User: Fold these one by one.
Assistant:
Number 1:
Amino acid sequence: MKYPEDLPSIPVNYAEEKLFSPEINHLVEKRLSKRFEKIRRDARDFSEKFIYPSALKIDWIIKNEDHDYTPWDIVKEGMKRGYLSFMYPKVTGGKGGLTAEFAVLMEELSAACPGIANIFGANALGAAAIVFSFNPDIWERYLVRAVEAEKMGEPVIFAWAITEPSAGSDVEYDEGLEKGTLTCEAKPVVGGFRLSGRKVFISNGSIAKYIVVKAATDKKRGRETWSTFIVSSSAEGFRVVRTEYKMGQVACPAAELEFDEVFISRRDTIGPVGSGRIMSKLILAASRGPVGAISTGIALGAFRLAAGYAMREDTPYSRSIRNPVIREILVEMFNRIRTARLSYLEATSNFDKLLLPPRSIMDGAEKPYRALTPLIRRENILEKLHRIGDKILERYFDHIVSSGKLDAQYKLASSAKVIGSDTAVWVASRALDIIRPGDHPYWLAAQKLYRDAKLVQIYEGTNQLNKQSIGNFLLTG
Ligand SMILES: Cc1cc2nc3c(=O)[nH]c(=O)nc-3n(C[C@H](O)[C@H](O)[C@H](O)COP(=O)(O)OP(=O)(O)OC[C@H]3O[C@@H](n4cnc5c(N)ncnc54)[C@H](O)[C@@H]3O)c2cc1C
């Protein structure tokens, strides 16, 4: 086989539909179930046209030829379908999608290639704090303008930067922030902050126009001063140091970023100083469900490969569905996928019910808001709106913490992430058991998914840390 021209398309067989009819789903109300199906159908169409034919080639190119290659053509096609602005409130021109809907999209795209899916996933993660800012000033300057650029055919990518070289797990829980391992610092200066330090493993970090950065304003008091900032990739003092050589999900770049005295204006902070801890917890309570969905998608992709392979006429009996042992393994794979799917659907639907800004905000009419644009865009008005936004955010945080909603959701989402990612690794491993080594393209595609699967046990907090943070609740009260 001469690479990469000869690399085949990934074969797809929606074998799971022989076992489960998605339309018969009593977990969610009918209307939502229909929306899920529409999203799933669109994602399948997108995957068949753009991902399955090229995912193996893209992986090969990035690993062997052009380490910094980004499949922009695919990103742009996804952008046209609203995959970048999926979670932006409708008033900003976005789709106003629910977390559960986004998760369904992630599952189906990840079944084809979780690396490509994660470009859209990491974008949503990056934009999440901006969405939850409740801040018309920030919405206007980032989301509205991103959607406007999209309309001109220009993707605007966001990234979320929390991990530091010596603080990975430590930045994901309160006590960790007190350990003194933080190196990034955003020192208060006139009119804003000066950010210095490095962030590592940042998905989309090298292709993002805007990076939402978490940093302490006093690194010795990480817990109390942990805050949220927006940094433009064109800011003076910002540099992409390098992109990682990854084992899996290679289509989505993970970058090390340097901030050398980068000035951040007060208006590019999200929420008051010190609100970063609650913001991080909120983002993780939102995003760990969709990571469960990415994981479920990886498992589903591996199941489709294994079942498709086993169903071929020329597959040897020992690996064929004619063999009851193989059928039993496939059913076990499928059962675990269903468990992972139910877990992420529960976690994301719960998030949408408990914590997503009210539908009136996400779904609000775009036209009346747009009519106000000339007024809103006046700088002095935007500045005032910014302060009002900060106040709303403070109240919202007080409410979700004191009501216990945030903790409740955090546990569910962390659990869905762990269940999903362990399922992904297990199911991808079984696919490699069923498919005979060297039987391409099934074998190549299953190998890729196995490598892709490992990462979901690591990002958004390692599974060990996720289980610890759930387990800690056993000690309380
Ligand atoms: C490809 C990739 C993409 C990523 N994307 C992003 C991104 O977009 N944005 C971002 O901010 N971060 C991102 N991350 C970072 C990711 O969230 C961290 O890698 C993860 O939180 C683990 O941190 P660490 O790598 O420093 O490992 P460490 O924290 O050093 O952990 C190493 C090991 O020790 C264990 N461990 C650590 N602390 C404890 C403890 N207290 N008790 C028990 N065990 C412990 C961990 O479970 C793990 O097994 C990404 C990482 C990767 C690999």
Note: The chain has two domains: 15-154+278-475, 158-275.
Number 2:
Amino acid sequence: MQRHVVLITLWLALAGRGSTAEFDLVLRGGRIVDGHGNPARFADVAVKDGRIAAIGRPGTNAAEVIDVPGLIIAPGFIDVHTHAENILELPSARNFARMGVTTLILGNCGSGPVDVGGFFRRAGATNIAVNVALLIGQGSIRSHVMGGSFMRPPTDEELGRMKQVVAKGMEDGALGMSTGLIYLPGTFTKTGELVELARVVAEHGGLYASHMRNESDHIMESLEELFTIAREARLPAHISHLKLGGQKNWGQTGKVIEAIERARASGLDITQDQYVYTASSTSIGSLIPEEAREGGKFKERMQDADERAKVIAQLKEQAAKRGTDFSYAVIASYDSQPRLNGLNLSQAAKELYGDESLDRQIDAILEIQLNGGASGVFHSMNEDDVRAYLRHPNTMIAADSSVRAWQSGVPHPRGYGNNARVLGRYVREEKVLKLEDAVRRMTSLPAATFQIKDRGSLREGAWADIVVFDPGTVSDKATFEQPHHYATGFRLVLVNGVKVVVDDAPANGARPGRVVRRGQ
Ligand SMILES: [Zn+2]
């Protein structure tokens, strides 16, 4: 048996060497959209040794020629905002690959591996299907150095150590630093502390990417904080998953965009990304005030009647401010009681206690948190606002998703559909964006902003991360009710010249992804 394998391997190696073909692959008869916003044009694309070898009329002297008439050939998509650290466990990353995403940026919202070099070594040894790059997560570093998530400033010694970890991460090839300022311990981090760390990122030429402190009633103050960090630390700043939550804020995107434009006019380099849905997704526990969760003592505090009463009062106030109960929040994945997945908090209260009142909804929130927590989907945005942000020329397209485990839970559909939804719904159907511009926001714009070299562009010499799709049919199939559906319309997805998707199906389990370090 083993001898058999050796012989086949030898034959393959000799066959490869003996081949006289000029190229490994030629894509013929399609239209290219180069990633830079230029108008689509007819051209063939030739691939050799993982790179784009020729564009135009390279001929057909190739080991393989694939005819793609009527289809678009574009650079593989770069998703700048993912939580796909779990790609080490789910290396095929199918939900991403099957909507044309060929490079993932991990480590967002302040959370990610503290040892950047170590993570890259593991990723390099794992055989992943798509490329990965990394941001250093400020929250993870703070917890690591301070020994937990505490509502206090760091000592000088702790701050010094955090700076060292940031510097090491940047030296190891991180693209920059992310924050998640609604999460523990990001929420306890004051602006000055962030500026100190951002200065280290700036010294290494990286960027600052932030899940801002507030994305609804206080979004303007949060923008100011981001601008302050960009100005004082002198580095580019990127707004993660730009949105406007809370019904009473709907229609105010103009103010947000104006503030961003003013900051840019004053010399700051501000960009943003977005997922194109009217619901967000994070932990159900994020509804609970952070003081109650601080220091890992939530359970302890909930045993104290006064503390519990205080948290309940705070949650009631939150609901009153919103003018709704918690039925806008849907349980996505709750390990302790999976039967609640897909139910909103009103339905979950009914299921748990036979009563859907606000009091019982709050009991459900606390019970979920006490039993290990759950992820949730929060229906809190407005479609016109989504379109308004999408129209801004510096908005990139990012799914804010982990690698999805097939059929597990009822997660936000963005992880399966985001890029395809932009191309189908917002380009073809609603004509909010031109195709070339939509592709630019998925390719060259993220590559330039996050310093990813030789990707996000169809040009000779670039890595052959290529997606071939049908502009007439490309669509997302994942819905809030049934999220586990792959996007469709993808004829071919190549990562470093190797097929990972063929005709909306995985291509023989190939996993050609690479680790992408800043500027490399
Ligand atoms: Zn986030």
Note: The first strand starts at residue 23 and ends at 28.
Number 3:
Amino acid sequence: MNRILQHYDLTHLHTFRLPSKAHSIVTIQTPEDVESLPADAYLLGEGSNTLFLMDFARPIALMRLKGIQLKEFSEYWEVTAAAGEHWHELVVSLTEQGVWGLENLALIPGTLGAAPVQNIGAYGVEIAQFIKHVHVWDREHKVYQELLNADCQFEYRDSIFKQQPNRWIILAVTLCIPKRWQPVLSYGELTTLPASPSALEVMAKVIEVRRNKLPDPQYIPNAGSFFKNPEVSYEFWEQLSVKYPTMPHYKLQSGKVKLAAGWLIDQLQLKGYRLGGAAVHHRQALVLVNMGDAVGEDVIQLAGYIQQQVWEAYGVKLETEVRLLGQNGLVTL
Ligand SMILES: Cc1cc2nc3c(=O)[nH]c(=O)nc-3n(C[C@H](O)[C@H](O)[C@H](O)COP(=O)(O)OP(=O)(O)OC[C@H]3O[C@@H](n4cnc5c(N)ncnc54)[C@H](O)[C@@H]3O)c2cc1C
């Protein structure tokens, strides 16, 4: 059964910790609980990709389903886990059991259920590569379904779940992890690992690098990368590269070029820039942080200022990677 909590404070239910309250809070503890959820309930995992900019007028449904099943086949492992499982703990547990492939995605905060929503990714790996199917409750047609990988429309930080936010409740995810394993070491500090590392060594390196690079939301509230890395046309990138020959870029199969949002912001000397209680992290330009007393308006002002500066300098529009919530639902800057 759903349980209505007695206090509705949202501050500690999202990692940016803006002061905010909810209309009501319900927890999902059994899969059937989703059938009796209020129609306008907003799904929340651990709130590590979510900012409550103000009080929220709708009920919140906290995903707390638990359970993990691991099956072995001759060529691959199949893992089915409930949406409320903690992603990083799942990665550590599987890697330590010899199920290798997810190690580059270690230390990404949040629940498994939210991971397909923005197709979490890091160090050249995305969860979509491993998803066999996603078990969902379709709120529109009131049916349980299994969506196959191809149905999920996975893209860079995008999926059908992000595109249709009020329709799908992810209950569980089935991952297919091939036994034939090859480390992915082409990104960032992973290139410095000695030849032929084990998955445990890769995971340890990923954890070390992330701990050094990213502020821990437990001590400095934040929601990870605030903006997505923008994609521009090849022709536009050619023009930019004349003016900024050292600009990091990544050519995509689509013909477009992906730019590093953090670099664009950093070049404008915005690290440490503060507006009210919100600031650009002093070491990581892509991460905005709550200095302790930030309110939603500070974040809106700061993010808008960064967007405007980047637009004026490069003609590139930054879009948010985080989910911004106003009084009644998702909002954009
Ligand atoms: C320090 C830090 C580092 C990060 N690094 C990375 C990174 O390297 N790569 C990356 O991709 N992300 C990163 N993130 C972002 C974040 O960890 C991921 O987006 C994560 O998947 C969010 O999980 P959550 O449970 O906290 O989601 P929430 O913030 O609670 O929810 C996110 C969205 O998913 C929806 N949702 C949640 N659960 C469900 C469900 N069961 N069914 C349907 N919809 C649901 C919510 O409605 C919301 O729209 C980082 C965040 C932080 C704070």
Note: The first helix runs from residue 87 to 96.
